[in-house]
Amino acid sequence: MFVAVKQVSLVVTQKDQFTAMRRVLNTNVDGNVNVMYALTAIKGVGRRYSNLVLKKADVDLSKRAGELTQDEAERIVDIIQNPLQYKIPKWFLNRQKHRTTGEYSQLVSNAVDNSLREDLERMKKIRLHRGVRHAQNLRVRGQHTKTTGRGGRTVGVSKKK
Description:
Elements: E1 21-24, E2 27-30, H1 35-38, H2 47-56, H3 70-81, H4 110-125, H5 129-135
Antiparallel strand pairs: 1-2
């Protein structure tokens, strides 16, 4: 019995233009993957945001990340960092109405971690219920904790011999 296996190869028009690994916003992006999915390797960029950014940058969605020109990569980075200048709606961003500054922004890479850490520290400092639960390393979102999440301690009945 013969099974036909279709092999798909990566066709590059200019060999010197393809890069297997590209550095974008302090993140290594795989050049062999479709651009939309490759950008999701950047923390704070999901599939929908990536799709919207590529459409705003006029980049072909069928391209691989390694086939991007330097100009296209710079446009993509600029749009990711300044989404409001390119008419991306406020409700699409991951940091809406910042508590102190009141601005809307899209946090990416290290800024996501820094913002989360600052928010948790603020909650702990003002003794918010969520902050107290985080400080005690307990469940925060209202889950039951009587039997689950005991942290590896085995509780049970010993067997009689």
